[in-house]
Amino acid sequence: MRLRIELLSDLCTSAGEIYNTLADIDVVYDNLGFPYIPAKRIKGCIREAYLELVDNGIYDANMYIKIFGTEGETSSCFSINNAYLDRYDEMRDDIEIYRDNPIAHPQNVLGLFSYIRSQTSIDYTSGTAQDGSLRNMRVVKRGTEFFSQISFDEDLTGDEIQSFKNAAEMVTHMGERRTRGLGLVKIRVEDEIHLNNKKSEPQNICKLYEKNKIPYRVTLRAPMRCQSLEGNQTKSLDYISGNKILGLIAEKLGGDDFKKLIAETDEQELVVTNAYICSKHKRCLPVSASLQKKKDQSFDSMGCMQVYDMMTNPDVNVQLTGIDADYIGYDGTVKKVSKSISYHHRRPSDKSIGRATGKNDGSVFYQLESINKGQEFCGYIFAGKQKSKKIIEALGVQKSYRIGNDKNSEFGLIGLHIENSIQIETPLEQYVKEFVVHIDSPVILYNQGMPSSDVDVLKQYLADELNVSSEMLAVTDCYLRYETIGGYNVTWHRRKPAFTAIGKGTVCKVISREPVNVALLDNCFIGERIHEGYGEIHVTNITQDKVILKKEKNIIEKAPLKTDIISKLEARYRKEKMADKARYAAMSRQTEFVKKEDDSIINRLLLTNKEQPTYEDMLLQIEQWSSQSKKDRAKKMMHDIEKIISEYTVSDSTEQSSVISDEEIYRIVSNSYLVQMKYQYRQFCKGE
Question: Would you state the pLDDT for residue 109?
């Protein structure tokens, strides 16, 4: 199902944050400047409309609970995406090509679809505007259309889906100032119905082995929330945890079949690793805590930076600081996961109160951090042959799924692609006395039944994997990170215990009295809950090699434009240049037109400008004025306007789609010039 949202009046979906001083209240827009309507706003408006139908006895309250769920207990039976502009993805592709061009700046893109409205409060004693009451609000222009996809669960009946459709089409207002002329919308439901739990088409089973390492790739088609225990439940992890993918597998297999899958005896235990950010379609790993750079050091002109690995260079005599990067690719390219914060609210229980107040009335303001859409993450599924076959069949071919927190509204839409399996072979034995252990995902350790983050406990787990006594090993030169681990048990509807674990990026040097076979630690997971991706490690030898980091390069391939967005931006840029030139021309005569009669001349010209469609018609109208002196002064102004108009003709444009008509040029230039003149006259009268 697709919702078409047409703006019958200007709309402001307040973003809750301001990045410039132009607007006190801004609209919600993406990183390229395209405005959109958050799914949570749409869902909330439809929910209120449905509640009205329930209150009027048209639909049953149980039907409402089944569709929308109940807070803290059951989730809704539908998922809804953000509402974007028509051909949104194609316009984004075009803007990405021109990303380095000033005309494609996000504020210029935003200006195509919105404008600034100003308002004041009135002092009823004086009848004038109150001092300091000027407020600016950005609004999306009337007539703009947005589109949002909605999918339903299989267990909803046709009548229940129809009731949802009726409620959606009842929505007439959304956003800020809806009682003051803003936010009037028309919502229509289009296209066929999409079901969330529709069976996936079978995946062509690739060649599988007795032990498999199956790469999977996740592309974020919407912002993604992997809730962290830090930040009062509003902070998101910067990776997709393995338990999210494991939960998706459980959902597609079904509860009973998934339990059988876990219980099956196979050549290899099922493990789903965390999905980390990709570089050139290859999985990155967390930056080691031992990597340090000189204070204030930056990348050189070649995009490279030599840093110190304190594991091999502990005696550096310069001031060092940590690396401003989260992950590092196979070739040394550093990556940082892009995240953002969105602001939301819940209205009071009493719906007669038109807005959230933050008081003890059931309303609340809150914010959610999420991983930005468009990024790609990679991970692995470790499983035996039979388990691998069942998982691939359950997930099907590359499809869209929803995972993560708040996945039914606004967040969690992904594309999942399963790649060809890599055979895990028995590695060649490699005996060494010293090696470095890298922690690639948080390690959950237990000591006598209690969670522990002690390095000595880590040593015991390593000794068990190496089949040696813990007394033979010594763990030294540790560069530690810690993370808070928790979770949620879906079966019991209870949170898992929260505790501190050794975090990803931790590195330790291990020294053994006798050579040990480190090949046993290849593709190894240690600790508890390893099937969820915890406990991933890898081992390297101790070397004195220099560590060279590389800055990520965004290479954008040139391609034919798919839309006219660039032409519109070019036309807008030309219009702004015209207006600026007209204002500068008026400013050059700042001290010339300050006579008392000039006020009436400027006002008459402004009125004539609205009435007459062309420059020539405006001149003919001036010729009919009775006062010759006023005509002469008006013609002086018109001469300035005519001079600027002559510089901007249709022949100046190389792109036919960005041509600005002569009439539009006349409107822009003459209005900008005369408004500036009016402003200057008023400032002169005030003595400023």
Answer: 93
pLDDT digits (tens, 9 = 90+) for 49-80: 999 999 888 998 889 899 888 876 778 888 89
The whole-angstrom separation of Cα 341 and Cα 15 is 10
Mean pLDDT of 663-669: 88
d(C-alpha 324, C-alpha 330), whole Å: 18
Pairing status of strand 114-119 against strand 185-190: unpaired
From CA 640, how far away is CA 630, in angstroms rounded? Answer: 16
- CA 254 vs CA 249, 272, 397, 482: distances in Å: 8, 17, 18, 35
Alpha helices, H only, 98-241: 106-113, 158-170
Q: Which residue has the tokens 């501190």?
A: 500
DSSP run (H or E) holding 572: helix 565-587
The one-letter amino acid at 457: V
**pLDDT 10s digits, 594-606:** 777 888 888 888 9
Identify which of 449, 451, 436 has the alpha carbon closest to the alpha carbon of residue 501.
Answer: 451
Length of the chain: 688
The 8 Å CB, 24+ separation contacts for 455-464 are 455/480, 455/508, 458/502, 458/508, 458/526, 459/510, 461/526, 461/527, 462/437, 462/510, 462/521, 462/526
Query: Considering the chain, what percentage of its residues have pLDDT values greater than 70?
Result: 92
Question: Could you give the C-alpha distances from 322 to 304, 310, 640, in angstroms and in order?
Answer: 16, 11, 59
pLDDT, tens digit (0-9, with 9 covering 90-100), for 233-253: 578 899 999 999 998 998 888
Of the candidates 374, 297, 370, which has an alpha carbon nearest to the alpha carbon of residue 334? 297
Tokens of 372: 């930005």
